[in-house]
Amino acid sequence: MKFLWIAILAVLLGQSVLGGSQVQPMSMSLSSDAIRTTIRQVASAWEAGDAEAIASPFADDAEFIVPGSCWRGREEIRQEAAKFAQTHTEVKITIKQIVVEGNLAFAEWDWQDVEKHSGKRTLAEDAIAVEFRDGKIIRWREYIDTDTPTPA
Known about the structure:
By secondary structure, this protein is of the alpha+beta class.
């Protein structure tokens, strides 16, 4: 997990150790506060099970990547979020930190949910790299640790 944090921070600081792009100026720049607000709104939308609100800040050609899945485009992101909301409840997100550098952001949060069918509770620690372009999210990449989460 330590390597993951170092790699994500290196990307945010503009070093291409993961093969990603350097921090680029945006044609329609969002302030750091606006980026933080957007990430908080996405977290709140997950808690509310609101697929429209989850997908709203994403660009038409955005990618949403979680281990094992890559959703492409705002509509697919909305559809997958709606599927999740139908099968899970009691989503609780505790944001630990959000770091912004140019058009890139890094968020760390604790996630909890309950699968409706089985009643199984999931606890996870997430590290999320988010890239913005023209005021929209173009890439959301989650690194999820369900093995060593601390209770929220």
